[in-house]
Amino acid sequence: MSDVVPAPSQPRIPVRGQNLPADSTFPVRRIYCVGRNFAEHAREMGAAVPTSAADRGSPVFFCKPADAIVLDGVVPYPRGTRDLHHEVELVVAIGRDAPAGVLDVADADALVFGYAVGLDLTRRDLQGAAKAKGLPWDTGKAFDHSAPVSAIVPAADAGALGARTLSLKVNGETRQQGSLADLVWNVPEILHELSRLFALRAGDLVFMGTPAGVGPLQPGDRFDAELAGIATLQGHITA
Ligand code: MN
């Protein structure tokens, strides 16, 4: 076998675990994302807001390429947009291949390796134009450098997610703050729903959706994201 082009390098996210070597990394296979997973964010986007668990319908999924990951926090302002938006999100790292078939909600936590905090950066103008025409969201969501992410903390070290706070400051000012208790679909429910559509495997990441308060980022802006008690992510937008 002889590759006719150089093999792409696989993104590897640092892992910060109490019982792991300091140079531990998590190789990324796929990135799944959940849309409209906080009611207040669905409302601010003008989408229908579920009023009960029975009224949730199905979650909204989309994907980013694995090489959209940014590890050093440095995000060049993307081409093709005049409205780059921040969406701070819980990121779930899958540590084991799912068994064949649909994953039971009760078995889902066993697949989780750990957690991080990340940004689902969005070219909101392109996403809005696609939505208006009933077209796919790829140009709005799946672009280069669209997924800055923190180091991953093993679930065993992180403890229960519970009602932890997810927050984002831009230039020191709080823009987004939400409780994981307000997720429309929690982590086991999302893994169950994903398994109805895709074969989840070790190395997959799931961006769990953003709380209200999304807004624009400009060149020069600094961002500080936090998943309380677990992970932080700092970075900035370059011209
Ligand atoms: Mn999002």
UniProtKB/TrEMBL annotation:
Membrane-spanning segments = none
Superkingdom of origin: Bacteria
Which molecular function terms from Gene Ontology are attached? Answer: hydrolase activity
Q: Which InterPro entries does the entry mention?
A: Fumarylacetoacetase-like_C (IPR011234), Fumarylacetoacetase_C_sf (IPR036663)
Q: Which Pfam families match?
A: FAA_hydrolase (PF01557)
Q: Does the keyword Endoplasmic reticulum apply?
A: no
Where does the Fumarylacetoacetase-like C-terminal domain start and stop, copy by copy? 31-237
Q: What keyword terms does UniProt attach to this protein?
A: Hydrolase, Metal-binding
PANTHER family linked to this entry: ACYLPYRUVASE, FLUTATHIONE S-TRANSFERASE
Write down what this protein is called: Fumarylacetoacetate hydrolase family protein
Originating species: Lysobacter niastensis
